[in-house]
Write a sequence for this structure.
């Protein structure tokens, strides 16, 4: 069963705009990770946030985590055409090392 | 470093045929994973390994077998392929069970 659920399923934005996507999960976690998948390619790790962290930044990416609401958000600022991809959240339970993926958010950045 | 490589990239099988997918990593990672990705869904874990000589079942192991005879290789076998196994298969590796590095995928069609 999939632990995480992303919202929205699809997002279309203009180049230069910000893109925000959310992930909700059901059980407690050790950490939550975000991955990007370009069409026809493998997944690429973007960022990991641990359960005791509330916010993390990496370049144009900002991730927040609210363990009380069992939710996370990924913000991509100043989007570019190259950001067009599917984005997946994945959770790791405490004491475990297996990822449980959501179904993903497909982001299209229009030039 | 090549990272994580998968062979073959594409394969078409007839129902009942068998095949082996090979995953190789050159990062000296202990953990290796096999996933399948179906349209509209996130990745689902088939089998995984926490070290050379060890394997364990994931979320959807039925119809698949795996072996990890060498640390750098993780093989996924289909003994008797079925149309329901038509999917894209991804291999991943991890140094400590957190961030995972993915291969480019194998697109398998079973007719």
């Amino acid at each position: 069963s999939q632990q995480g659920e992303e919202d929205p399923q699809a997002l279309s934005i203009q180049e230069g705009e910000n893109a925000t996507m959310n992930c909700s999960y059901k059980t407690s976690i050790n950490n939550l990770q975000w991955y990007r998948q370009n069409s026809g390619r493998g997944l690429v790790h973007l960022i990991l946030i641990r359960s005791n962290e509330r916010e993390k930044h990496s370049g144009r990416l900002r991730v927040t985590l609210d363990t009380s609401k069992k939710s996370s958000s990924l913000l991509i600022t100043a989007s570019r055409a190259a950001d067009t991809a599917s984005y997946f959240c994945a959770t790791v339970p405490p004491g475990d090392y297996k990822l449980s993926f959501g179904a993903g958010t497909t982001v299209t950045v229009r030039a | 470093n090549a990272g994580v490589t998968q062979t073959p990239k594409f394969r078409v099988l007839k129902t009942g045929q068998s095949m082996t997918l090979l995953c190789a990593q050159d990062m000296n990672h202990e953990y290796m994973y096999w996933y399948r990705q179906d349209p509209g869904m996130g990745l689902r874990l088939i089998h995984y390994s926490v070290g050379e000589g060890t394997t364990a079942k994931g979320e959807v192991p039925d119809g698949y077998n795996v072996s990890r005879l060498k640390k750098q290789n993780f093989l996924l076998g289909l003994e008797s392929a079925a149309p329901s196994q038509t999917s894209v298969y991804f291999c991943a590796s991890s140094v400590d069970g957190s961030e995972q590095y993915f291969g480019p995928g194998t697109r398998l069609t079973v007719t």
